[in-house]
Write a structure and sequence with these properties.
Layout: H1 2-5, H2 8-18, H3 21-28, H4 32-35, H5 47-72, H6 87-96, E1 102-104, H7 111-116, H8 120-128, H9 161-175, E2 181-186, H10 193-204, E3 209-215, E4 218-219, E5 222-223, H11 224-227, H12 235-238, E6 244-248, H13 252-268, E7 273-278, H14 296-303, H15 307-317, H16 323-346
Parallel strand pairs: 1-2, 2-3, 3-7, 6-7
Antiparallel strand pairs: 4-5
Bound molecules: thiamine diphosphate and magnesium ion.
Thiamine diphosphate binds at residues 108, 156-158, 186-189, 216, 218-220, 285.
């Protein structure tokens, strides 16, 4: 109510005078009420849902902490973009959708398949470049795929997955299913023409697709404010008359609810939704990033709203799980990660001749030969 009385300019002035930058960010975008609803909030979901959120986000976190260490030991090479801090984006969307829905994302792509149930060993093996990896060791960190989980990658070219995400949704409509596609992209991707072309066609054809901008504030070292005149990115969808909303994506419940609503719209035949997930990555862009574009204080502010700790607090405060049950989950996740590393370590490297397999060939072009 306070915020409906005051204009945006006054709002920001008051914020900068009285409040911390973290809170200011959420209030500026009208989400203060929601963002304070953490551990004290009502229990809205089942025990199983909280359990799943906690376990799946913890697996994402621990898996990537390990991947970061292994990178330091040069077991993992090349690029490696960690999702640490952003886990609620994947976990909340996964719990809101159905098994047959289609997924696509950019190169920060280890956590989503982990949440969808891809074998952590196969993902770790892919990071190692081993033949048992999800992409037979040929894709590495940025190209995790899992057809069995309807996870269509893992794409390194910024924005390239957006028209493909649209196509995945279009295919479902064409085949007459009730499935949809969900297409994740970073804030940097919305400056690509492909984003705008895809939004236009998605709304024109009422395609069952959910576009998600994971706005973590930065594209490499460039902040949204330095690269975009419109910095409330969900507003970009409004020019295509797409229902478009900001979401506090440090909170898994908020993510779940927003995606659930978007999915209902898509399955009813009303077409796309654009969601701007306001999130944050704790680590650098990739593995070598001096992070001169932000302060340590800024990172710490976001850690105070950590998505996993928010769920843990809800679970503990409301006695959804016992201390012992929480410890069991932590031990299970630790073992899953250790097993994944062992599997990757012991797996064979691809053979030289494998370089000529799974590539486009003339005789059955455009299909990939097994
Ligand atoms: C077409 C294209 N241009 C430039 C790059 C180099 N590049 C790699 S990641 C990146 C930043 C993208 O940032 P964002 O979309 O916000 O995703 P985030 O890394 O924050 O998840 C850039 C410019 C690229 N991969 N593709
Ligand atoms: Mg970004």
């Amino acid at each position: 109510m306070f915020f409906t009385i005051f204009g945006k300019g006054l709002k920001i002035a008051l914020i900068s005078l009285y409040l911390s930058p973290k809170l200011a960010y959420f209030i500026e975008y009208g989400m203060a009420k929601k963002s304070s609803s953490t551990s004290k909030s009502k229990v809205k979901y089942s025990k199983e849902t909280y359990h799943n959120w906690f376990e799946s986000m913890l697996l994402m976190r621990r898996f990537e902490e390990k991947a970061g260490q292994l990178y330091g030991q040069q077991k993992i090479r090349g690029f490696c973009h960690l999702y640490i801090g952003q886990e609620a984006c994947a976990a909340g969307a996964i719990s809101a959708l159905e098994k047959e829905d289609k997924w696509i994302t950019a190169y920060r792509c280890h956590a989503t398949p982990l949440g969808l149930g891809t074998d952590p060993g196969a993902i770790m093996a892919e990071l190692f470049g081993k033949a048992t990896g999800t992409t037979k060791g040929k894709g590495g960190s940025m190209h995790i795929f899992d057809k069995s989980k309807n996870f269509a990658g893992g794409h390194a070219i910024v924005g390239a997955q957006i028209p493909m995400g649209l196509g995945l949704g279009f295919a479902e409509k064409y085949k007459g299913t009730k499935n949809l596609s969900i297409c994740f992209m970073g804030d940097g991707a919305v400056r690509q023409g492909a984003f705008h072309e895809s939004l236009n066609l998605a709304m024109l054809y009422k395609t069952p697709v959910i576009f998600v901008i994971e706005n973590n504030g930065y594209a490499m070292g460039t902040s949204v404010k330095r690269s975009s005149n419109v910095d409330e990115l969900y507003k970009l969808g409004e020019s295509y008359e797409i229902p478009s909303f900001p979401v506090d994506a440090m909170n898994v419940e908020e993510v779940h609810e927003a995606v659930k609503e978007a999915a209902e719209r898509a399955r009813k035949g009303d077409g796309p939704t654009l969601l701007e997930f306001r999130t944050y990555r704790y680590k650098g862009h990739s593995m070598s990033d001096p992070q001169k574009y932000r302060t340590k204080e800024e990172v710490e502010e976001y850690k105070q709203r950590d998505p996993i700790e928010q769920v843990r607090a809800t679970i503990v405060d409301n006695q959804i799980l016992t201390e012992d049950e929480i410890k069991e989950i932590e031990a299970k996740v630790k073992k899953q990660v250790a097993d994944a590393v062992k599997f990757a370590e012991e797996s064979p490297w691809p053979e030289g001749e494998d370089a000529f397999k799974d590539v486009y060939m003339e005789d059955d072009y455009p299909f990939v030969r097994e």
